Description:
It is a single chain. By secondary structure, this protein is of the alpha/beta class. The chain is 41% helix and 15% strand. It has 11 helices and 10 strands. It has helices spanning 17-27, 39-51, 67-74, 91-97, 120-129, 155-159, 188-197, 205-214, 218-241, 261-270, 294-315; strands spanning 34-37, 57-61, 78-82, 102-108, 135-139, 164-169, 182-185, 253-257, 276-277, 286-290. The strands form 2 sheets. It has a 7-stranded mixed beta sheet with strand order 1-7-6-5-4-2-3, sandwiched between helices. Strands 8-10-9 form a 3-stranded antiparallel beta sheet, with helices on one face. A hairpin with an 8-residue loop joins strand 9 (276-277) and strand 10 (286-290). Helix 2 packs parallel to helix 3 (67-74). Bound molecules: pyridoxal-5'-phosphate. The site of pyridoxal-5'-phosphate (PLP) has 13 residues, from helix 2.
Amino acid sequence: MIAGASRMHRYPDGGTCALRRKIARKLGIKTDEILPSNGSNEVIELLGHVFLEKGKGIVTSDRAFAVYALVAKSFQADIVSVPMKDFRHDLKAMLSAIKPETRVVFVDNPNNPTSTMLNEAELDSFIEKVPDHVVVCIDEAYIELVDKKLQPDTLKHVRAGRKVVILRTFSKTYGLASLRLGYAVAPSGCIALMDRVRQPFNVNGMAQIAAMAALDDDEYVERTREMVKSGLLFFRETFEKMGLETIPAEANFMLVKVGNGRDVFNRMMKKGVIVRAMDVYGLPNHIRVSVGTPSENMKCVEALGAVMAENRADAK
Ligand SMILES: *Cc1c(COP(=O)(O)O)cnc(C)c1O
């Protein structure tokens, strides 16, 4: 990236050709089945441009990534938010929620904010049953954090030409959030439709340079996965000792039951630690805590411990 900085007065490759080839080779799929994007958020919007309008709709979970519903709303599309079951996507209910007007079903896996994951068999049987007029979008923003053996193979559905769009990002595991870089993997026909409605230079030059390097750095991904795993273990054990219930986590964050989540969020913020209040997702007693470096994790549990002690003192 430092070497590339002197070339930033030029437009980038608008076709992201080298990057498409590199991702395709890495995943074992065809170049025309890849679309690099300005963060994977852009692909969610492109799906809106291609498939959504007034009278059409999406199906998702009530505790899924908030952007699906925001995008659908901006295209005046109908939104069906299916209640989760035990903090997991209820695929059976989502299937029943599909209507003739439905165009896209969004499944984030692992899910943000619950950090739960569907396995390959569950996804396969769902994708098989989804009717042909519907595109299944599987958002795998955190998939590289999951042990290789446990990562569901969703690319096989793209290879088979099924109406599936896989979202990946460099913002999370690769640690390049600020560059705005993600990609879609989908059958070539679907990629071509999204290619037509995107901005001409949607992936900036610095992001393309970084992506080429990042894709070669498997060791960094391994290291990140291990660091997140030990961070989650530290959180789970520490929270358990504090008498706080956690939801088993697959991504780099975890739901913790703390009592009044909004109040805990406010008090922790005053101590310099930002967590996420879950009341907006109908979970007023939970907060979402993200794994950081070991010292950040320590600071987080100390802040939470202090807040819980304050709350106990207030209750007296
Ligand atoms: C972070 C995130 C994204 C997208 O992030 P980008 O920075 O736009 O690539 C997409 N889906 C989920 C579930 C996320 O958590």
